[in-house]
Structures are given as C-alpha cells and as structure tokens.
UniProtKB/TrEMBL annotation:
Lineage of origin: Bacteria, Pseudomonadati, Pseudomonadota, Alphaproteobacteria, Sphingomonadales
Organism in which the protein naturally occurs: Sphingomonas vulcanisoli
InterPro entries given in the database record: CysQ/Inositol_MonoPase (IPR050725), Inositol_monophosphatase-like (IPR000760)
Name the record gives this protein: 3'(2'), 5'-bisphosphate nucleotidase
Broad EC category: hydrolase
Coiled coil: none
Length: 250
C-alpha cells in the first residue's frame, strides 16, 4: 500500500502535475491567446479541486476560479490555490507564469508549492534553500504591465536594477531562486496570489510581510490581500523604513 503523501508532498505533486497539464494544453495548438488562458484556468482548476477533494476531503478550499464559500472560515486547514497565476503570460507563450498550491493553517501560510512549468521547476516550502547573497547592485522585480509607483520609487531610492516580470509567483520565486533581491507589490492582490509564494519564501529564510511590515494572514471572508514584501531579512528594516517615508504610506 502506498503511504499517504504529506501536505507538502501533496502540494508539490498537484502543482507540478497541473503545470504539466497546462504545458500539454498549450502545446496542443487547439487554443491561442486569450482563449488559451481561459482554457488553462478552467483545466488546471478542475484538476486541482478534484485532487484536493480526493486527498483532503475535510479541508476547506479557496481558489481564484471557484465561488468564494465563506464556510471555509470555520475550518482550520484551508487550501488556497491559483490554478494559473499569470494567465496573460501563459496565453502569450511566455515563461513567467506559475501554479500556486498553498495550505493555510489557522491563518498562517504553512505549506506552499509554486510550479514554474515553463522552466521545469517546482519550489516547495518542504525543500527550499535560501538564495546566495548578491554583493552587487540590488535587483528588484516589478510588474511588466502595471509596475506600482511605490515599487518604482523604492527602486530609485535603492539604486536598484528593475526587472519587469509577469506573474506574482514568478516574481516571488525569482527572489527565492536568487535571480532578484526584492519583490514589493502594492497594486492589489488576493490571497491566492501570494499564499503559496509567501510559504515558500518564508521556508527559504526570506523576509515576508505586508508592505507595512505586518504579518500576512489568510482565510479571511474577504480574500483581498493587496500588498506584499519579500526580500532578504538583513535588508528588511531598511526597506520598510523607506516605504514608511513614502507619501501616502504613513
């Protein structure tokens, strides 16, 4: 008899498998552009929901592609998923999109897996080494389509190199992978956008918080969770102080 998977192993397996399904769908040539993104959202979501219900039937689920059932708020363990983070990038044939599978326990981002299918990688909170120290100019990932003014202002203050990138998961994992040093987002997100990235980044020893330094908490009735900071822990105090000094962030 096969031993049951741990929560972390389950998250990793589901994220990786969903990513493979999305690659197969894209490679089929049956859909293009926006239609491909929509088909990807539906296909990945259907698989993820079925897999989670089969493996953890007592747990709650919050997915971007499902109706928000607030009955989950009475449950300690809730899976928070984004079946296709970066739908536009996926539909455009880019590599900066992701699959997010996270488990929130009592509001904490306890377990997470972020698959980067086009890069052939899945990063998990169960096995994630911290990035190497960058001794050069700081590198900061920002949205490639709508960079937040606070992020651009912080980059200017730090003299940082700005790296435009697609999905939230791709940007967060760029910091975990050591390809960037800072990810500040203030333009609006939901729990499914950042729960799995937060869990993986925390496991890698990075600083993870709201933009004001307060903790990220999950499984709220309203899943809107608009801002996020991921950076090296030794830089966090300086970065947070700079953010507080910005107009309108007092």
């Amino acid at each position: 008899m096969t031993a049951p998977l741990t929560d972390a192993a389950l998250a990793t397996k589901i994220a990786t498998t969903a990513g493979k399904l999305l690659l197969t769908l894209r490679d089929s040539g049956l859909f293009e552009g926006k239609a491909l993104g929509q088909a990807g959202d539906r296909t990945a979501n259907a698989f993820i929901i079925e897999a989670l219900k089969a493996a953890r039937p007592e747990d709650g689920i919050l997915s971007e592609e499902e109706v928000n059932d607030i009955a989950r708020c009475a449950v300690s363990r809730v899976w928070i998923v984004d079946p296709l983070d970066g739908t536009r990038e996926y539909g455009e044939g880019r590599s900066d999109w992701a699959v997010h599978i996270a488990l929130s326990i009592d509001g904490e981002p306890a377990i997470g897996a972020v698959a980067l299918p086009a890069l052939g990688a899945t990063l998990s909170s169960d096995a994630c080494a911290g990035p190497a120290v960058n001794a050069g100019r700081p590198r900061m990932v920002v949205s490639r389509s709508r960079p937040a003014k606070e992020a651009l202002a912080l980059a200017e203050k730090l003299g940082a190199e700005v790296l435009p990138m697609g999905s939230a998961g791709a940007k967060a994992m760029a910091v975990v992978r050591g390809e960037a040093d800072i990810y500040l987002h203030t333009g609006g997100q939901y729990e499914w956008d950042n729960c799995a990235p937060a869990a993986v980044a925390k496991a890698a020893g990075l600083h993870v918080s709201r933009a004001d330094g307060s903790p990220l908490t999950y499984n709220s009735e309203n899943p809107y969770l608009p801002d996020l900071l991921i950076c090296r822990p030794e830089a966090a105090d300086r970065i947070l102080a700079m953010i507080r000094e910005m107009p309108g962030t007092e």
